Amino acid sequence: MSRPLKILIVDHAPIFGGVEAMIRDLVGAADSGAFALTLVTDNASPVQFNWPDARRVPLPRLRRNPAAMFWAGAGLARLARTADVLMTTTARTHAIGSVAASLSQTPLIWRLADDTLPPALARAFAPIPKRIVAVSAYMAGRCSPQPAKTVIIPDGLPNPGLTPPGMRQSARAALGLRPDERVALSVARLVRWKGHTLFARAVKLSGVTGLIAGGEDESEGELGGKGLREELETMCGVSGRSNERPYRLLGHRADLRELFAACDVFAHTSTRPEPFGRAVVQAMMAGIPVAASHSGAIAEVVGEAGRLFPSGDAVGLAAALAMDERTRVRLGREGRERALARFELGAMTRRLEEVWRDAAGV
Question: Domains plus CATH for the chain?
Answer without folding.
Answer: 5-156+344-360 (3.40.50.2000), 167-342 (3.40.50.2000)
